[in-house]
Fold this protein.
Amino acid sequence: MFEVFEKAILTGLGAISLSQKKAEEFINEVKEKYKLSEEEGRSFLDKLEGMAREGKGRIAEMAEIEVKKVIDRIGLVPREEFDLLQKRVAELEEKLRVPEPVDPC
């Protein structure tokens, strides 16, 4: 199940992450095809970049939420909680430690 989720996230990120060069090539094609001015093409490119950033941010947020759900479902504890429990166990072990008897000789 996790592999399917991982593939979906990677596919989404791949679709969103257009390189600057590819985006500019696309804009040049659109400019020629639809007779756009340089300013109109640049404006369109800026809109596309904004949409890509926004989409990437949303996917990252959704991925974080889903990962937290999976972590909760399989019973993993956060690192901070684990460290606190480890410290508490060490303190309890120290309290329970029986001192070695002293040889009176």
Summary: The chain has one domain: 2-96. Residues 2-96 form one domain. The radius of gyration is 28 Å.
